[in-house]
Amino acid sequence: MTIRRTVFATLVSSLITGQALAHNHHDESEYRQHGAHVHGVVELNIAQDANALLVEITAPGADVVGFEHAPKNDQQKKSLDNALKTLAQPLQLLTFSAGAQCTLVDTVVTETLTAHDDKHGDHDNHNHNEHEDHDHDSHDHDEHAHHDHDHDHDHDHEDGSCNGQHGEFSAQYTFNCDNIETLTDMQSDWFKHFVTTEKITIQAITNKGQKAGQLTPAQTQFTF
Fold first, then answer.
1. Where does 40-184 show beta strands of DSSP type E?
2. Is-above-0.90 flag for pTM?
């Protein structure tokens, strides 16, 4: 599994570099800004390594479950569990050319919603204790308030809110294709399962070359 991930990271890195050279500066900037994800936009990277087809999907929590923090009630817990189960079954989400005979051999699904919530909890405790120390030490109240304001301002810019949000899902799939040379297209049913997604941006690198594209609810097929 480690080897597969290393190969995937290398190929996708090459893909991004190649796409940056092939597209103008505006396109490159738009792609790189996806690091801070945009609601409604899911990223899908595809890389071929011999007969292996490596797929990585990164999706904002809002697109998958409707929230980007740890579940706060039973309904949200159920939504998270269902989402993880769906993402763990990529054959429900992606279909490759039948002639390519692609078989799923590996699946890794992760999420950062709960991790963000835990970190925020630690962050809250730290601020609370720090505030108490300031009170006991009789520090200048205005100075402390100014410190809090600056911190909150920075936090807003980094996370999009004071709640440590912007959790996301990541799924990595490895397919083995017996006749990968006949691979011509990929059909996605993502929008049927995650209806709030507006589009999927695709970056692909195969033996046929590099190609970028996007899918929408009205256009769900990508041609290599």
1. 41-49, 52-60, 94-96, 102-111, 168-177
2. no
